[in-house]
Amino acid sequence: MSVLLKKPFGNHGKVHEITATSAGWRYVGFSLYRLRAGETASEATGDREVILVMVEGKAEINGAGQHWGVLGNRMNVFERLAPHCLYLPNDTQWDAKAETDCVIAVCTAPGKGGHEARRIGPDGITLTERGKGSNKRYINNIAMENEDFCDSLLVTEVFTPAGNWSSYPSHRHDEDDFPRITYLEETYYHRLNPASGFGVQRVYTDDGSLDETMAVADGDVVLVPRGHHPCAAPHGFDMYYLNVMAGPLRKWRFVPAPEVEWILERDA
């Protein structure tokens, strides 16, 4: 199995824990909790800022010394509703108590103390269509660069209909050369509908030094340390993924793969 493909530890409790150290990079962290109603989770942010994403279900959340009430309104991620999220700066703490069975994603990156704790969504998050034909997908931008919510984090959700491609035409963001391109590490948390299905993701560099093609199952995480990273949803299975990106500059600038540059120009 590819070292870039991370399977959940199980189906209950903390089922993913990807740190910058364990991933072998510098910026992005990603964890995931699957809680049953009444169960709790808590963490200190340390030197990292955090966005909690209520992927599914509802939880009562305290964070950064404030009570934020019950967050969450979609019971199944494929309802495509805008998510309830919470931004927490570094050097704070949070705790959650599940009101229903729920899935909470913990997206992290280095914090600089530059932003206050705040709710993100569902207000202000609009499902947006992107792409054409079999490259069509739907985006919930949680905290991309247009939203000045974070020091480092870039976070978004993508829904890819069955039979379509996503994160395509293939592109990379693995050099620190703004404004041409930015260096951003990235994780993909995948879900499939029906959950028994699979998706496909390829991570590859132009020179072929990295070239991994993975079958992703419901609940898997894919690491993208560098290179291009397209994915596809087979006929019959819708795909969701939650992206977490971070690097030295909170900007998303990419370079397309040479073999697909003509598609970007044609579809512009």
Please provide a written account of the structure.
It is a single chain. By secondary structure, this protein is mainly beta. It has 2 helices and 25 strands. It has helices at residues 20-23, 261-267; strands spanning 5-6, 13-18, 29-35, 40-44, 48-56, 59-63, 66-71, 85-88, 93-98, 102-110, 118-120, 128-130, 137-143, 154-160, 165-166, 171-172, 174-177, 181-183, 185-193, 198-204, 211-217, 221-224, 231-232, 238-246, 255-256. The strands form 6 sheets. Strands 1-22-19-24-14-13-12 form a 7-stranded antiparallel sheet, with no helix packed on it. A hairpin with a 6-residue loop joins strand 12 (128-130) and strand 13 (137-143). The radius of gyration is 17 Å and the shape is globular. 44% of the residues are buried. The mean pLDDT is 97.
